[in-house]
Amino acid sequence: MNEMPGGQMRNRLGGDSATPSELFPVLSKRKELVSKGLLIPVGIAFLFGIILTATAGDPAIFRNILGVGIGLGCFYVLYRLGGKKKSWWVFAFATVFTMVLMMSPLFNLFFMVFYSMIGTPQGEAFNQLSFGRQVIGRFFSTGMMEELTKIIPVLLIWKWTARWKSPRRETAGVTEPLDGILIGAASALGFVFVETLTQYAPNAVMGVAGSIAKQLPHLPPDLYVLAGDVFGLQSVILRILPELSGHMAYSGYFGYFVGLAAMKPKHMWKLLITGYVSAAGLHAIWDLFCDQPGIGVYLQLPMMLVFYAFLVAAILKARQISPLRAQNFATVVVNSPAPLAFAAAASAAPVQAPVIAPPPVAVPVRAAAPVRVATPAPAVARAPVPQPVAQKAAVVESDCMHLRVAQKTLALRDGANFADSDIPGLRSSTANGVVASVSRNPKDPTMMGLQNLSSTTWKAAMPNGESREIPSGRSVRLVSATRIDFGLVQGEVA
Question: Do 114 and 239 fall into the same domain?
Answer without folding.
Answer: yes
